[in-house]
Amino acid sequence: MDLITNIFSLVGSLALFLFGMKTMSEGLEKFAGDRLRSILAAMTKNRVMGVLTGILITALIQSSSATTVMVVSFVNAGLMTLAQSIGVIMGANIGTTVTAWIISAVGFKVNIAAFAIPLLAVGMPLIFSKRGNRKSVGEFIFGFSFLFMGLSFLQEAATAMNIGDIVAGMLAHVPQDSFLTIILFVIVGAIVTMIVQASAATMAITLMLFGMNIPGFGFEQAAALAMGQNIGTTITAFMASLTANTQARRAALAHMFFNVFGVVAFLVVFYPACNAVSWMVENVMGGGNDLFKLSAFHTAFNIINTLLLIGFVKQIETLVCKVLPMKAHDEDYRLKFISGGLLSTAELSIVEAQKEIHNFAERCKRMFGFVPELLLLKDEVEFNKLFSRIEKYESITDSMEMEIAGYLNKVSKGRLSDASKNQIQKMLRQITELESIGDSVYNLGRTLNRHRMHCQEEFTAEQIQHMQTMMQLVDGALAEMLGRIDQPTTKRASRPLSISSTKSTIIVRN
């Protein structure tokens, strides 16, 4: 019975750690909001700035997976190029090593859980604040407290289970000096991280085991586990990209290539690298605890890997483009930027939806452009062909409204700031109006089709001139709509221009 209780305590402690990390990350993202998106957009103009941006963002939100998923969603939404994303991903790998240093410094030496409880008291009034920014700060404090409480409970549960003896017993049957054992630990690290989907959690477990001085689990074995985690952490972004467009899948693949290459390159010089890190910590950094060696190796591994490949961003881009070529078929008749599943956090998913709404508006304007052509067509075959195209576009606008609305409903169930909730309401109104524009254009096409089929008289030159003038005005209004649709609204802003509020019709007199 005690064993079952200890197992559940161990799993529960890990769950609390992961929940704390998720809450802390989301709280910071909500607090940053548009500023975080602006930072990423402004600071990725060259590869060096992209790397520094990746380090900064990941060090703040304490999750390389969150950063890479964010990057994949930005590429999917067309807000970041593939080359820019590669630089940020490189930086994310370095930024995630901050977690290991924090845990090495205070995680197992100071009872951080004792400080976590008072922190919850600080965060409590902020959580219930009506102001969005204060609430986000409160969530960040709660997440930080839960993270270190989970870490403390994880150590207690592992000690109660005598997990050190269990691991030592398992390692007793593994040859200690074999290079195949190092490769085995790399594979184990990758698999565990794929399952947990959080390299920081796996790194915390690795540091905990390394700190127990388990026979057969020394610095080299722990370093191999840490290297494997770099491969396992790519699974999160890869899974997020499965429903994305080709460019986003390329960004996730570049992340995988980058990390796998680093592991393979380090395996070639694994033992000299371990010796160099040990010498650096003992002679340059003044010693410290053994956990610093593992943290230093983790950091050195990612920094050296980045320095080796930062000059080959274009080549990496070319490689992933060859592995994942752009699909030859026309993707005009499906959503371009969003799909059935959420790509990233709720806050960042709004960027993708807004991009898709802009695409929706462009399609409506393109659809209206068929009407002046239809008005002047005399050939019956060509007329029917163009009218069928208008019918198809009308069906597409209906589908787009349903799919974007469904996506926004999923996003609205996430943890959103007040500004983002208002943004979603605005976007839902936009897609309703755009679908109405599609209906209006279809009604124009049907009116012209009925006139061609049932009226003997043709339009006079004066009638055609008047209709063309009206259509030019409507086309100009649609162009104005495209320029305004992405602009943020304020409480004082007037209602956005809507073409569909007056259903455009052509009255034909026989």
How does this model look, in words?
With 510 residues, this protein is mainly alpha-helical. It contains 22 helices and no strands. Helix 5 packs antiparallel against helix 16, helix 14 packs across helix 17 and helix 15 packs across helix 16. The longest helix has 37 residues. The protein is elongated. It starts with a helix and ends in a 26-residue tail after the last helix. The C terminus is likely disordered.
Largest sheet: none
What does the radius of gyration come to? 29 Å
Number of distinct helices: 22
Q: How confident is the prediction overall: mean pLDDT? A: 77
Identify the overall geometry. Answer: elongated
- Low-pLDDT runs of 5+ residues are 328-332, 489-510
* Structural class by helix and strand composition: mainly alpha
Q: What is the H-and-E element order?
A: HHHHHHHHHHHHHHHHHHHHHH
What is the percent of helical residues?
A: over 70%
**Strand tally, please?**
0
Strand content: under 5%
| Cα end-to-end separation | 90 Å
Set out the fold topology.
Layout: H1 2-32, H2 34-42, H3 47-61, H4 64-76, H5 82-95, H6 97-107, H7 112-127, H8 132-160, H9 163-171, H10 179-196, H11 199-211, H12 219-232, H13 234-241, H14 246-268, H15 270-284, H16 291-309, H17 313-323, H18 346-368, H19 370-376, H20 380-412, H21 418-454, H22 461-484
Helix pairs in contact: 1-8, 3-5, 4-5, 4-13, 4-14, 4-18, 5-14, 5-16, 5-17, 6-11, 6-16, 7-8, 10-12, 11-12, 12-14, 12-16, 13-14, 14-16, 14-17, 15-16, 18-20, 18-21, 18-22, 19-20, 20-21
